[in-house]
Amino acid sequence: MHSSGSPSPSAPLPSPDKQRQSIGIFDSGVGGLTVVSAVHRLLPREDIIYFGDTGRVPYGNKSPEMIIQYSLQISRFLISQGVKAVVVACNTATAHALSSLRASLSVPVMGVVVPGVEAALSATRNGRVGIIGTYGTIQSGAYQKALLARRPDVQLTAIPTPLLVPLIEEDWLTHAATHLVLAEYLSPIQAARCDSLVLACTHYPLAKGVIGSIMGEDVTLVDSADNMARDLARRLETDNLLRPAEDIHTGRIRLHVSDLPTQFATLARRFLGVRVGAIDKVVLD
């Protein structure tokens, strides 16, 4: 069973073969590729295996029980591919399934909520923080609880924005309808005079341009990808799981989906900024 604490001083050091295993990352769709990109930039020698659950996206309108089931299925697939850690690059899955995954898996499991919370608290100057995410993430209260636990006087405005993931997945970011929808969603956050806005879904950084144009330059947009990558690097170093320093190796990225590999490839190129190779469609048990 995985413990969220540091490894015991008496625990044996992982073998070089273990250190050379891949990092597993998953999300409900393409959004988690923002985390893949951040991890690849920070840890360029590490191999990454990514799973996008494109056949069941979005997770935000699913029950917690279904989200836990999906997350366990995907994590077991990643474990079968020989990963040394699992990153839940989905805010909804982090909110509902992280504790179940940590109880079930024998590798370190990390989620995206805490890195985003810490970044938001560092960014705010007036103590007013906005949060946008899926229904599942907002209703779970995961961000609200984590923010208030660290700063009880923070003023929060949390708004579900369920149409945004489908608009991103359908490549409608430059469409006038997307601007209209976001302007409606963001009006309560503007009214609350928030100066820090948490993009509590890993899809949302792709919409930073339109969100920023509505919120204005005085509002800091916080996404957890870069902070997640830094937390992962620290955890792998603590657990002695970083790739051996003597290895001369350029990290490879393998992409898997549950459906629509061709459509996924188009969006993946935009998220990663590089050509992507063959994308494997996987049927989960």
Could you explain how this protein is built, in words?
This protein is of the alpha/beta class and 285 residues long. It folds into 2 domains: 16-111 and 226-281, Rossmann fold (3-Layer(aba) Sandwich); 114-223, Rossmann fold. It is built from 12 helices and 10 strands. The protein has helices at 16-19, 33-42, 64-80, 91-104, 113-123, 135-140, 142-150, 164-169, 176-191, 208-215, 225-238, 261-272; strands at residues 22-27, 48-52, 83-88, 109-111, 128-133, 155-160, 196-199, 220-222, 253-257, 280-281. It has a 6-stranded parallel sheet with strand order 4-3-1-2-9-10, sandwiched between helices. Helix 5 packs across helix 7 (142-150). It is globular, with a radius of gyration of 18 Å. Residues 1-8 have low confidence and may be disordered.
How much β-strand is present in the residues?
15-25%
What's the level 1 CATH class of the largest domain? Alpha Beta
The assigned CATH architecture of the largest domain is 3-Layer(aba) Sandwich
Helix content: 40-55%
Distance between the termini: 22 Å
Give the class from helix and strand content and strand pairing. alpha/beta
Mean pLDDT: 92
List strands and helices in order, with pairings:
Elements lengths: L15 H4 L2 E6 L5 H10 L5 E5 L11 H17 L2 E6 L2 H14 L4 E3 L1 H11 L4 E6 L1 H6 L1 H9 L4 E6 L3 H6 L6 H16 L4 E4 L8 H8 L4 E3 L2 H14 L14 E5 L3 H12 L7 E2 L4
Parallel strand pairs: 1-2, 1-3, 2-9, 3-4, 5-6, 5-7, 7-8, 9-10
